[in-house]
Design a protein that fits this description.
It contains three helices and nine strands; from the N terminus they run αββββαβββαββ. By secondary structure, it is α+β, with helices and mostly antiparallel strands. The strands form three sheets. Strands 7-6-8-9 form a four-stranded antiparallel β-sheet, with helices on one face. A three-stranded antiparallel β-sheet has the order 1-4-5, with helices on one face. Strands 2-3 form a two-stranded antiparallel ribbon. β6 and β7 form a beta hairpin. It is globular and about 45 Å long.
Amino acid sequence: MTSYHARPIEPAALKELRATDDAGRPMAPFVDDEGGAPLRCCLRRSEPGERIALLSYAPLRRWAAETGADPGAYDERGPVFVHADDCGGPDSTGHPFTGAHRVLRRYSAEGRILGGRLVDSSESFDEAFAEAFTDPEVALVHVRAVEYGCFLYEVRRD
């Protein structure tokens, strides 16, 4: 059985984003007094007192730069929380942020949307990824929050 791995924002991209985000803004770190922000650098929720930042991130644009794809109008950017300083990255496996409805948005190797699927917290994310990747045209899947539409992480075809 194939395993599908959540991919955090890569360290090289984090370094760039912490200097200037994908909207051209400098990072404005703050102390998260409450905790609970979904951190895309280590794929866990923040703890109270951690120093984090809210940045603009264009995941499909960055993937397209690696692969030579042209996402055209599908090139979007949105807000993501990250640690303001380097962190160790994810320390667990599996699929983070699954305690709510999520949208799995499918993309082709050309960077075009091929469809999506709503997954609720009681469903198997591995099964939903397996279903997505049965389509040979699907190159990657973005997992997004339903309530805000925010990018949470991506899963790529092995």
